């Protein structure tokens, strides 16, 4: 009989994202932004320890850049050392951002960390109570781009244990604005391969592509732009012979959201200021740190003039001046839609645009 196992599936940590172009952001908020990926890593480590998982899967793009920082390497090493104290294993692969040939720092990770250090599919056995209970399969990118389909190279062995595949790649054949099409695969290929769980990475929007078998994108652990709104985190997974359970766990320290505001009743600027503040309170349901993009609907000619002459920017600046407390809301930009006309876009907040 197979033993029950519990693990965390995460991907796309993007440690030490540079968040370029932040010169206009208040210093306390800027500090929060640059700490955010590291806080998500700490939250991940704490979750693994609190929930007493057997292991953690990190499926590519652990680091954000080819030239990785010393700070990022020290942070991940310390996290691994904490996990080692609780006998939690880590199975780690590298993706298009931190591919093998870009790395210059020695890893010197503790013995609980198992790195997929080839572009060929290999596996590690996960040992629990002196017996193998799972086999984890995967590969790392040797160079930035892996364009071939790797899914056909995954072959499950016949041991009566859990077989878990990790794959940093793209489902389907379509390119997108946010994600290059690397290591493309078809969902049908994964479902037919016989694995108990497919742990995916690369796409920053979490998605359960299949439940039988589980084929899951956890998304990234910390949003970095308005393209990455909502909660960000990982999946806590339990597998047994009788059931499987995968539960999303938020890890982010800063959340990106959009807030829609109807403006047709605006007649003067104080009224607009009050409505923006009230709408933000309605959009934000719980305390925390938020970057918010406003979507202004039914903009009149008068309000459009405020946009053109900078008056609306001044109102937003007044609101943003209070965004330096422990919990804050910062308006990073806005879109507007003219009444009975096409949508227009104001490029405020463009500094937070990122791609994977």
Q: What is the overall silhouette?
A: elongated
Based on helices, strands and strand pairing, what is the structural class? Answer: alpha/beta
Element order, helices and strands?
EHEHEEEEEHEEEEEEHEHHEE
Question: How are the strands of the biggest sheet laid out side by side?
Answer: 4-3-2-1-11-12
CATH class of the largest domain: Alpha Beta
Please name the CATH architecture of the largest domain.
Answer: 4-Layer Sandwich
Strand tally is 16
**What does the largest sheet look like?**
6 strands, mixed
Share of helical residues: 10-25%
Radius of gyration: 23 Å
Number of domains: 2
Which stretches are low in confidence, meaning pLDDT under 50 for 5 or more residues running? Answer: 347-356
Query: If helices are DSSP runs of H or I spanning 4 or more residues, what is the number of helices?
Result: 6
Strand % is: 25-35%
Q: Terminal Cα separation, in Å? A: 41 Å
CATH superfamily assignment of the largest domain?
A: Metallo-dependent phosphatases
What is the CATH topology descriptor of the largest domain?
Purple Acid Phosphatase, chain A, domain 2
Average pLDDT, to the nearest integer? Answer: 92
Outline of the structure:
The protein is α/β, with parallel strands linked by helices. It has six helices and 16 strands.
